[in-house]
């Protein structure tokens, strides 16, 4: 019954949401010293969430990035362990290439330039900000975007050999992304 009520609620509130723009969130990313190194933006579209990463100040090379289950990055001195494991309410295995995966926090790797700069976009259908599809990012204990020192092999447990957590940002609700008028989208 609860499920029916929730589905009904979503059905009636979605057109209103579209009028107001798309749900959006921001994560201010800090490194292991707690220093700010950039931002991640989350925009929830009809059936997937776009994640846009803009960073400056990471060691170069390929890096893993995941959505972790708890919205805290205060323990930067202790390697951001308080952000918990991956967002994974359905208990799936980790890995975009895992036959029993992926979990809802899994994302592709990205590359940090020699200068320490990185810019990347990801799109995931496994998680939404408000729970419209997949796992809910902005649930009661929030979530954090966590960057690891190594790339993810997208298969091994629990985090694809990605190694230490080197940066983290609490994902927080932000002003909606203003959707242009239908006439401007042609
Ligand atoms: Cu991770």
Question: Could you describe the 3D structure shown?
Answer:
With 186 residues, this protein is mainly beta. It has one domain: Immunoglobulin-like. Helices cover 10% and strands 36% of the residues. The protein is built from one helix and eleven strands. A hairpin with a 4-residue loop joins strand 2 and strand 3 (49-56). It starts with a helix and ends in a 9-residue tail after the last strand. The relative contact order is 0.24. The mean pLDDT is 92. The site of copper (II) ion has 6 residues, from strand 5 and strand 10.
Topology (elements, then pairings):
Blueprint: H1 2-20, E1 22-31, E2 36-44, E3 49-56, E4 61-63, E5 65-68, E6 110-112, E7 117-124, E8 127-128, E9 135-136, E10 144-148, E11 165-177
Copper (II) ion is lined by residues 66, 68, 146, 148, 159, 162.
């Amino acid at each position: 019954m609860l499920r029916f009520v929730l589905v009904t609620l979503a059905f009636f509130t979605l057109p209103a949401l579209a009028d107001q723009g798309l749900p959006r969130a921001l994560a201010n990313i800090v490194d292991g010293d707690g220093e700010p190194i950039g931002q991640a933006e989350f925009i929830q579209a009809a059936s997937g969430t776009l994640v846009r990463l803009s960073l400056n100040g990471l060691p170069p090379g390929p890096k893993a990035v995941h959505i972790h289950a708890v919205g805290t990055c205060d323990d930067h001195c202790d390697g951001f362990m308080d952000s918990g494991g991956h967002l994974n309410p359905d208990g799936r295995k980790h890995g975009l290439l895992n036959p029993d995966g992926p979990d809802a926090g899994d994302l592709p790797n990205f590359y940090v330039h020699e200068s320490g700069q990185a810019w990347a976009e990801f799109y995931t259908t496994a998680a939404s900000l408000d729970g419209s599809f997949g796992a809910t990012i902005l649930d009661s204990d929030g979530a954090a975007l966590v960057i690891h020192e190594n790339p993810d092999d997208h298969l091994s447990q629990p985090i694809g050999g990605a190694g230490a957590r080197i940066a983290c940002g609490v994902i927080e609700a932000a002003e909606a992304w203003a959707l242009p008028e239908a006439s401007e989208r042609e």
